[in-house]
Known about the structure:
The complex is a heterodimer of chains A (404) and B (122). Chain A has 404 residues and is α/β, with parallel strands linked by helices. Chain A is built from 13 helices and 13 strands.
Amino acid sequence: MSKPIYLDYAATTPVDPRVLEAMLPYFTERFGNAASRNHLFGWKAEEAVDQARQEVAALIGAQAKEIVFTSGATESDNLALLGVAEMYQEQGKHIITCVTEHKAVLDTAHYLETKGFEVTFLPVDKAGRIDLTQLEATIREDTILISLMAANNEIGTLHPIKEIGAIAKKHGVLFHSDATQAVGKIPVDVQEMGVDLLSISAHKMYGPKGVGALYVRRRKPRVRLAPQIHGGGHERGMRSGTLAVPQLVGLGAACRIAGEEMAAEAIRVRALRDRLHKKFTTALDFVHLNGHEELRLPGLVNLSFAFVEGESLMMGLENIAVSSGSACTSASLEPSYVLRALGVGDELAHCSIRFSLGRFTTEEELDRAAEKVIATVTRLREMSPLYDMAKEGIDLKSIQWAAH
Amino acid sequence: MYSDKVIDHYNAPRNVGKLDGEDVGTGIVGAPECGDVMKLQVKVEEGRIVDAKFKTFGCGSAIASSSLATEWIKGKTLDEAAQITNSDIAEELNLPPVKIHCSVLAEDAIKAAVKDYKERNQ
Lengths: 404, 122
């Protein structure tokens, strides 16, 4: 059996060996509690935490004091939405977000709806972008927060964060961005982009799982959050709980390395991604790109291989790790809500595969994966009644299918 | 996740293809929006299925269910074939509960092909 190929970097990334090396001493000899203010063990831990805070802040153009450590981006999203909602509810109870957000934002927004908040879920165009005019028109007197992701996890489409930030500022509304997929992959600068709250995850950028951060602006405006986890007043009272020092050191190291290598890495990964895409479109017909052609994460391409169901394709790709928006791969049996929001028909959503590349993807692996995908799509199309019909020029939409 | 039988049918599907002629019945069931479409055809001589072919758009379990269906109905009379149930198929392939609809679709495909043949050869 050939060596497995990992093309699912948007799901998670391996820990960079340099990150792991930085973390290791903090499990053993430097194991102190960063909150132990009265002995050496605590000081060493605190020193490491301070450095990590600096490294995270530096990557996004923030001040160290503006970084609140969390257990990951899901918690960061929860803290941003719930914390703002609770703190600012006297000013208003309206929140704006968008239909293609990650579930960490969507589910939290739905929860807030049950608590008397009103949420507007903006639609997106077929590339996955919101309409800025519509966003601005949606802002009301009682709008307290706009939450829009920097880069989408399924299709990689980038939102115009800087423009959104300007609109939010103009109307005096706080702006949160879930930048889980963007930080460490593309330049993110909270000053330039006018972001007030920003969610970060370590394990999407070669750091460990179980740790992340929330950037919380301290000046112009000073953002206040109602804590969601109580007990000890860590992290300026916004997030209690003993700091996971080894994890934080890992997050910091991951941010430092990303800052140094991101520019070159993006160029390399984008070239590999485009090479993969081109191989598919050269060898196969009926290949649709889901997401934006240009304004997209460098390492991500989401494609629908029409007339081949995604799960059956993945089954043929043993040893190649990818993701699919097919219903059959989800517990709910519903195809991807992100692709649906783009207006990609369900028939194409069932055929979608997300390829996400990263730091350790090699050209050799990519070519081997491309070959396998092309062979499997070709084989499955030979047994697809829909491919036959399409080849015969029959419009599949003209047929009365018996939905089941 | 998949049973050995599903994997076997997926890797080496039986009777992929299509049939033409007066003595052929065709059933097409499912819908592209639902992620599975099965086309199953039977060639009939003197009330007995002498050949069967399929083409399926769907997950591995859907492909396996239709492949198995064509294998089973060959040599059977139309009435015998129409008696094959989804639970026979699901049991043979060890389908998990979320994949039962694949076997239902295969049963429907057999019945639709038999019905089509009967209607065209009354």
